[in-house]
Amino acid sequence: MRVLKMVLLLICIASIDLVLAAEEEVSVQRNVSLRRHPHLIDTVLPELVNAQTKVVVVLHGGGGSKEGIAINLGLLDRETGQYNTQFLAKQNLGVVFVGGMSIKESPGATGWTNHVMVSGQEDMSMLRDISLKLRHGGFQNLYLIGHSMGGVMVNRVWSEQPELFSAYGSSAGPMAASLLKSCRPSDAKPYIQVTGNFDRILQIVEETRGGELIDHSSDLFLNLDPATKRAAGEAMPFESPDFANELVTLQWRSKLMCESSVLYTSTVPRRGRWQQRSTIACGGRILLVELNG
């Protein structure tokens, strides 16, 4: 989950001209829903809105919950059940945590209809309604981030309705393989992906039954770990391959966004090898952060 924390941190850093607000000027609503959608939503939003105010809509991973991802991000206290409104106020930042739904055949597979799994709901329409409601409330700087299957949903929105949010971020949640050929966003928005090079759920590294490790980091497509896919049951009805490999499709995305394949890479060394590698393209509008380990 530290990869999603990195995405959130980068969004905070991007707003360097912070306007401090008092803790009591943050409004918290729990388990609210939109008129046409059954999803339960928590909102933690500043009451005083200005040009620097940012709102981040957060999507959890498959089988997860809005409370779980809020706790993992350090924004919800596990013991007290209270949101960290003081931190959010100081950052002039609002957050919206959305609870994913599931089909009746696989009740534990909460998530999103994202071309890899299905939730039984119109999740794209739901996110569009969230975006519209926030904009009507005066919030203009809207970001969508997600972890794992939530990140796959982020990629679907980036591809199909990019106008809904100002920028997009994903951790361990690449684009669905079926979107790679059809993806032609009308307005390619800034995008950050944080991924681990030894991810065994996305099978960037596949572990066989005999314990052998197979490196798929240079493959165009990736497949979800079979045990994870079996656990999801009928919530994952699509044929393999499951994902487009972010490590390989970065140049494709940069050509799509700025007609350029020029990339700039920097590394953070540790104990004789690189620990973190950042690749930037399109003047900073694309950022891929790889964690080695």
Please characterize this protein's 3D structure:
- The protein is α/β, with parallel strands linked by helices and 293 residues long.
- The chain has one domain (2-291): Rossmann fold.
- The protein contains eight helices and 14 strands.
- The chain has helices spanning 2-14, 66-72, 85-90, 123-136, 149-160, 179-182, 226-232, 246-258; strands at 26-32, 41-46, 54-59, 93-98, 141-147, 167-171, 191-196, 205-207, 213-215, 221-222, 243-244, 263-270, 273-281, 286-291.
- The strands form three sheets. A ten-stranded mixed sheet has the order 1-2-4-3-5-6-7-14-13-12, sandwiched between helices. A two-stranded antiparallel ribbon has the order 8-9. A two-stranded antiparallel ribbon has the order 10-11.
- Strand 5 (141-147), helix 5 and strand 6 form a beta-alpha-beta unit.
- The longest helix has 14 residues, at 123-136.
- The two termini are 13 Å apart.
Short summary:
It contains 8 helices and 14 strands.
What keyword list fits this structure?
alpha/beta, Rossmann fold, 10-stranded mixed β-sheet
Order of helices and strands: HEEEHHEHEHEHEEEEHEHEEE
CATH 2nd-level architecture: 3-Layer(aba) Sandwich
Overall average pLDDT: 89
Strand order of the largest sheet: 1-2-4-3-5-6-7-14-13-12
CATH topology title: Rossmann fold
Radius of gyration, whole Å: 19 Å
Strand count: 14
State the assembly state of the protein chains: single chain
What's the CATH class label?
Answer: Alpha Beta
Q: pLDDT below 50 for ≥5 consecutive residues: which ranges?
A: 15-24
Gross geometry: globular
Helix content, binned percent: 25-40%
Q: How many domain units?
A: 1
The biggest beta sheet is recorded as: 10 strands, mixed
